[in-house]
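Morning!

As promised:
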Amino acid sequence: MLQLTESWYLVLAALIFTIGAVGLLIRRNPLVMFMCVELMLNAVNLSFVAFARSLDDVAGQAIVFFVLVLAAAEVVVGLAIIVAILRRREGADADDVSLMRG
Amino acid sequence: MFVFLVSGAICLGGALGVVLFRNTVHNALSLVATLFGVAVLFIAQEAYFLAAIQVIVYAGAIVILFLFVIMLLGVDRATALKRDPILGQRPLAVLTGAGLLGLGLTALLAGASRVTGERSSLAPLDPDVPDVDRLGRVLFTDYVFAFEITAVLLTIAVVGAVVLSRRAKKPIDLDEFPEGTAAEELERVRASQDVEQEAAPAAGGSGDGEDAR
């Protein structure tokens, strides 16, 4: 039986991060792009907790706490911007935001 | 091992669902699956408090916020995933992702997983001390400044969200009124302004200038 080490968690985190990054590049819907950013943040959280466990240090968990707060703030402001944009232009996607250039 | 495999599969399936489903509501629900899987993995690694706030903050607040916005804007219809506005963007994105994964796995499995190798620089994960005690002690001593800054950050985020999502005040469009009413309305507003200015004699000089215009 294979031993479950922190490398397994890190590999899983790398996979989730990659899926999130590819999704961020592929998708055009700003809401889905935001969800992909959340995926990437979660992958990083997972690896932080894995490191906290393997290095026996509570600092990793404290940083996860801050990342959670940051993600909440980011989502609130980002969704407000998306609402403000989509209210003006129905069905706008990430390409249309280039119209904001002065 | 069993817990890891099951919740890891849920995480990966949810992550793929976020990227591949066409309906935005389905994307949000797959995101919930991933977040729950990550919460279970937190519990498996004895980060109980973090698992709790993961479920409460992410699944309870953030995804609900996503769903609110989806419903509010009515963008829950299926989006065309086939449209590829930039030529060759999708293969390039997959290639970039593969490269990223390759780099990460190489760094991990080549033995660089311990960055400095130093252990317990802040506080050990003592199994006798409860999880919340440990985290709270660190947050309110070593990281207290960062903690206060997150409070400020959250306040700014709330104010910013209110300002951004507020409906802009519409300027009065004179064509909307029937013939004649617009002029009467304008007269009425001017008259009320004059009354105010007479009540406050100090502002009289500048008020005359505006009337002349």
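Chain A is about 75% helix and 0% strand.

Hope this helps with the figure draft.
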